[in-house]
Amino acid sequence: MQDERFTRTLLLFKENGFQKLQNASVLLLGVGGVGSFALDCLYRTGVGKICIVDYDVFDVTNQNRQIGAFEGVGCKKVEVLSQKYHGVLSLDSKITQDFIDGFDFKAYDIVIDAIDDIDAKIALALKIANQSKKELVKEKMPHLLVSTGSAKKLDPSQIQFASIWKSYGDRFARKFREGLKKKAFKGDFMVAFSPEAPKCKELGSFSGVTASFGLRLASEAVNLILNKE
Predict the structure, then answer these.
(1) Contact in structure between 53 and 93 (CB atoms under 8 Å)
(2) Are 211 and 35 in contact (CB under 8 A)?
(3) pTM over 0.70
(4) 106 φ, ψ to 5°?
């Protein structure tokens, strides 16, 4: 008998689709303003295996946009969220070159990059997406879905989802593309981005946008899972 909390999910996805979700595995890197909402959506939808990775501690300034921040000030994000979302695996680790070199990404179907360190994002893309689609499938590498800049924006309706090479209008995404080119990156992956002009100079943020980035990434992950043969 299925958990009753999935009753409405089953009505939409049917038994076959729901079983695909239950059998799927998603690695979520970063559980801040974007990642925490991606986690919430994936968990509520019934993805069977979710692993979250983050090294940061909740601060009071996180409370405007991050799930877990109200009850978790001063505590590790992964500890708070793994208690809130029972069954989620967690790793308290910074996403560094050493972490990327040593981690088994092939254990997951999808990797969602919700970190804000461009150097780490470049290293991650080089590790799991620096080949043709055919080669990546052959090597059983996971799909990579990436968040670009979600700060300084107010209008979630401007969020788009496209190839990293077709992203535009966002300084963070531009720096990301330039960094990939400098490293002779030859692959491709999909990103959530917004061409909305920044509304402030500082890193101001609005949950209506940061959360929408996370929900869009989670929705794309669910669609990939459902369409898997």
Answers:
(1) yes
(2) no
(3) yes
(4) -70, -10
Strand partners, 57: 76
Which residues 6+ apart lie within 8 Å of 169 measured at CB? 193, 194, 195, 196, 197
- Per the prediction, the chain carries an average pLDDT of 96
Q: Which residues of 104-134 are buried (b: 16+ CB within 10 A; e: fewer)?
A: eeeebbbbbbbbbebebbbbbbbbbbbeeee
Tell me the three state secondary structure of residue 195.
coil
167-189 per-position pLDDT tens digit: 999 999 999 999 999 999 999 99
Counting every residue, how long is the chain?
A: 229
- Residue 106 corresponds to which tokens in the numbers above? 């092939």
Amino acid at 218: A
| Tokens matching residue 63 | 């409370």
159's tokens: 């969020």
Which candidate, 39, 57, 55, places its Cα nearest to that of 47?
39
Buried b (16+ CB within 10 A) or exposed e, 59-79: eeebeebbbbbeebeeebbbb
Cα distance from N-terminal residue to C-terminal residue, the chain: 25
